[in-house]
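User: Let's play a game. I give you a shape written as tokens, and you guess the letters that built it. Ready? Here's round one.
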């Protein structure tokens, strides 16, 4: 072919064969496409025939490769005189991102120094000698003379001359390959080269439906879609920092030799705020704040503008091939969600699917962290960086101790030889503020806890940061390039020491170890990450599996703070009033810093608080204090007495223990108080006639939960009510003492002694109101119990009263004279005499017998015997009058009227009797003769029925 013909061919290819569209976003720039000619072989005779003239031997081949839009490329010449040759001529062109179909033409030429170069026929198509192919730059499909990426094609020789005119050329076979092929994955990351450069066309319309932003064909690409709740957008620079950590990962791509990893954290869309989010298997009717509902929608509808799921971006979900896009991303993209907080996880920093074969879902949940927690973590940005990389690490097949050689997960946390953000000591820069953001970079390091060499460098090759380890639970930092005092005991150092070096309770409860014989092995993380997750049991949406608890804000804060704890017990769970209770207060420190300037304040249930200083306490240190208090006698029975102990302290920098850690700084201990509670009930006959007996029933009981001691029952009768043991017809028991009080009242006393809990007793006795009481009068008896308890406690007496109303009967109106009463002892019935005794006791013992509280017939007769002088005459008249009252012949309220009664201002029988009783209280001396005479006269008039007015 002449030069003009070749030029025309190139122009036509440029004009007619290129399809150019806007390029999708990517990092690699123009896409390389390579043609390699593998074999040239004469099909028709070519030895001194066809391409070569007689005498010129076999051809001297060279090739011409033309990429549309590029200058033609002429290959070097093959060795002279070869009818078959494998040249492996290679040409790579960087195809612009906008080109969709790239046309390529291959021509095979014979170099002829004498008669001009000759073009061989390599295509079966008539009228053309060039092999033509077209490569779809989206999916790598090859069409044209060759329909696959590798193969052979040969010409038809153009019978009859064809385009060669009268000088036909023989058919030559050319074998070649085009790379990358549709399945080529140069860096071995699971994405084809075409996907990494262009993306995917799911419906073969030559339009890219989904791209892989900034894909790196030379390195492992890891894609993570990041959504975030309102007000929880990652801080500026967080995603870049984590991507940067992957970019400098200590790993070399086995296929390309490129270093590091290409992590793509694709910040997508904001979702509505929720205080907490659930991250568990999707339950039926899951709430809108469930992780899987946020990701997939409820009901699950990832596609369409009305879809409620957020996985994939808005363009993905609106695409006609959304289902294909989402399916593609579910197989290739992890999904991370920045939320406010996790349901049931307090201030937990996040959650992630964790399995030896990886996972695809995780959350970062730092919205519940207080400003103090974030400050301890180095700020919100540092906390987000470390937590994001930590949770992502779980989905990449790492546990809190990394990953073992056999592929199993290592859950041992806080290993000193594991310097990775997967280690809680490294997740955030709270313990080592300058710790790098990375997974473990150095190789295997082993520490045997019962064979630790304190005399030599520990063999932690590659350690560039301080080693964080535990001594007795306290957090220590040491230079990993020097020998380490693992036991913390100082010199002399041992070559085979034993210590529990990963026991670091100040960092997190997950760093609590009970063994000092563990073999702690750490491996490099970067060379054993699990990039794919489709073979993980958690790849199915909604199946998150069992996940480890994660570092909490409290733990981050505790690691750099003193975190005092207090427990308290008392020696008496039950105590009586006046008892001494001893409280034992145990103070501990579970923080990462020694507690300084400590104090404990004990507040008893009653009384003033007591504050004492507490000596400095290292991590896991403790001490005990004892306090006492006295149970008040005035306490309510059954009351719970609560003592309180509160501790406070500062860390070694003098910073007070933060408020977030004070929940366990107060302890209480309860004692139930027991005291006696005496109760008394009093009842009396509701109504009686004057002089008749009243029955009193008094019941005491101890309603308290402790015995009453020295209990005494006293019942006080009013002055108008008479009691004597002789006249008492009650069921008893009788009183131990009967006291006539100066005010005329009478007190009956029973000594109850000790009354046990629920102890009770009843006293029943009788007493009689005076005959001088009138209808409607009332008498009230009062029962009082006094008592005490143990330890000399005394209690307020309890009192109850009982009231009786006086009634009367219509009098017979036939009072009897004194002489009649003297001569008629049969009329003086015991009941009548008892009524008399209740009204006036002066006749008891009147026969010179001892007064015994009951009026007998002889005593009554003695009062009537020979009443010839005063006061005997007046006494006899008085007894007769009271007997008339007792036998209801007259009543105390019966009106009387005579000249003498009127002069004396006396209107009733009762008035007259009380006047006479007043007279008898005075001696019958000369100055009282008139009064004695008047008194005798008025009673004589009453007993004679001369004065009564009925």
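Assistant: Ready! My guess for every position:
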């Amino acid at each position: 072919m002449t030069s003009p013909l070749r030029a025309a061919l190139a122009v036509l290819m440029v004009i007619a064969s290129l399809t150019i569209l806007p390029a999708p976003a990517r990092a690699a720039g123009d896409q390389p496409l390579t043609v390699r000619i593998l074999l040239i072989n004469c099909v028709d005779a070519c030895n001194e025939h066809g391409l070569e003239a007689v005498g010129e031997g076999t051809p001297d081949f060279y090739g011409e490769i033309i990429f549309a839009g590029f200058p033609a490329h002429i290959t070097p010449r093959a060795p002279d005189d070869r009818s078959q040759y494998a040249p492996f001529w290679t040409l790579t062109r960087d195809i612009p991102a906008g080109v969709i179909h790239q046309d390529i033409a291959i021509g095979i030429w014979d170099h002829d120094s004498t008669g001009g170069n000759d073009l061989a026929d390599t295509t079966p198509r008539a009228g053309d000698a060039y092999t033509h192919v077209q490569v779809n730059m989206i999916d790598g499909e090859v069409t044209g003379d060759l329909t696959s990426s590798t193969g052979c094609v040969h010409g038809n020789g153009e019978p009859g001359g064809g385009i060669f005119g009268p000088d036909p050329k023989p058919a030559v076979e050319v074998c070649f390959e085009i790379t990358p092929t549709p399945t080529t994955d140069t860096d071995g990351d699971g994405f084809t080269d075409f996907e990494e450069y262009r993306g995917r066309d799911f419906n073969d319309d030559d339009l890219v439906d989904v791209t892989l932003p900034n894909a790196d064909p030379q390195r492992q690409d890891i894609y993570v879609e990041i959504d975030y709740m309102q007000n929880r957008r990652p801080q500026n620079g967080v995603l870049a920092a984590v991507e940067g950590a992957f970019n400098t990962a200590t790993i070399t791509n086995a296929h390309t030799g490129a270093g590091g990893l290409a992590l793509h954290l694709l910040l997508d869309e904001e979702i509505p705020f929720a205080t907490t989010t659930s991250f568990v298997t999707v339950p039926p009717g899951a709430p809108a704040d469930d992780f899987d509902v946020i990701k997939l929608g409820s009901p699950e509808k990832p596609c369409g503008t009305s879809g409620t799921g957020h996985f994939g971006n808005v363009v993905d979900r609106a695409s006609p091939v959304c289902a294909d896009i989402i399916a593609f991303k579910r197989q290739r993209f992890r999904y991370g969600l920045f939320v406010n907080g996790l349901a049931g996880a307090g201030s937990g920093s996040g959650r992630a699917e964790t399995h030896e074969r990886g996972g695809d879902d995780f959350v970062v949940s730092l919205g519940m962290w207080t400003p103090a927690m974030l400050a301890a973590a180095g700020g919100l940005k540092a906390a987000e960086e470390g937590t994001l990389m930590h949770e992502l690490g779980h989905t990449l097949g790492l546990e809190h101790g990394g990953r073992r050689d056999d592929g199993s997960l290592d859950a041992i946390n806080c290993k000193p030889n594991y310097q990775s953000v997967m280690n809680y000591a490294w997740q955030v820069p709270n313990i080592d503020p300058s710790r790098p953001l990375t997974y473990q970079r150095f190789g295997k390091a082993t520490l045997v806890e019962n064979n630790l060499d304190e005399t030599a460098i520990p063999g932690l090759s590659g350690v560039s940061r301080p080693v964080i380890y535990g001594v007795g639970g306290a957090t220590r930092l040491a230079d990993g390039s020097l020998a380490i005092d693992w036991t913390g005991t100082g010199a002399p150092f041992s070559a085979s020491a034993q210590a529990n070096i990963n026991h670091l309770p100040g960092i997190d409860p997950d760093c609590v170890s009970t063994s000092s014989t563990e073999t702690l092995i750490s491996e490099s993380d970067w060379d054993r990450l699990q990039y794919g997750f489709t073979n993980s049991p958690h790849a199915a949406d909604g199946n998150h599996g069992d996940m480890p608890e994660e570092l909490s804000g409290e733990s981050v804060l505790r690691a750099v703070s003193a975190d005092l704890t207090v427990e308290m017990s008392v020696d008496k769970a039950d105590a009586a009033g006046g008892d001494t209770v001893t409280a034992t207060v145990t103070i501990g420190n579970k923080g990462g810093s020694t507690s300084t300037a400590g104090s404990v304040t004990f507040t008893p249930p009653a009384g003033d608080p007591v504050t004492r200083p507490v000596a400095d306490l290292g991590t896991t240190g403790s001490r005990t204090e004892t306090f006492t208090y006295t149970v008040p006698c005035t306490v309510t029975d059954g009351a719970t007495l609560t003592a309180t102990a509160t501790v406070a302290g500062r860390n070694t920098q003098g910073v007070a223990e933060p408020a977030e850690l004070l929940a366990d700084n107060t302890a209480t201990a309860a004692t139930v108080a027991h005291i006696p509670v005496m109760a008394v009930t009093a009842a009396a006959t509701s109504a009686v006639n004057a002089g008749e007996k009243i029955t009193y029933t008094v019941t005491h009981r101890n309603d308290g939960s402790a015995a009453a001691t020295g209990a005494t029952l006293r019942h006080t009768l009013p002055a108008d009510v008479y009691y004597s043991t002789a006249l008492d017809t009650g069921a008893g028991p009788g009183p131990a003492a009967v006291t006539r009080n100066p005010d005329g009242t009478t007190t009956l006393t029973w000594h109850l002694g000790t009354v046990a809990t629920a102890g009770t007793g009843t006293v029943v006795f009788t007493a009689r109101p005076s005959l001088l009481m009138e209808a409607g009068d009332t008498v009230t008896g009062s029962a009082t119990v006094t008592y005490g308890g143990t330890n000399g406690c005394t209690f307020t007496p309890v009192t109850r009263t009982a009231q009786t109303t006086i009634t009367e009967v219509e009098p017979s109106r036939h009072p009897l004279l004194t002489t009649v009463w003297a001569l008629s002892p049969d009329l003086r019935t015991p009941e009548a005499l008892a009524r008399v005794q209740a009204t006036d006791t002066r006749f008891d013992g009147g026969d010179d017998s001892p007064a015994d509280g009951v009026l007998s017939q002889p005593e009554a007769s003695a009062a009537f015997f020979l009443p010839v002088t005063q006061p005997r005459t007046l006494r006899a008249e008085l007894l007769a009058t009271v007997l008339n009252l007792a036998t209801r012949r007259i009543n105390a309220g019966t009106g009387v009227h005579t000249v003498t009664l009127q002069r004396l201002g006396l209107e009733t029988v009762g008035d007259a009797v009380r006047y006479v009783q007043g007279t008898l209280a005075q001696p019958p001396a000369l100055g009282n003769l008139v009064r004695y005479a008047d008194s005798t006269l008025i009673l004589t008039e009453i007993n004679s029925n001369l004065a009564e007015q009925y």
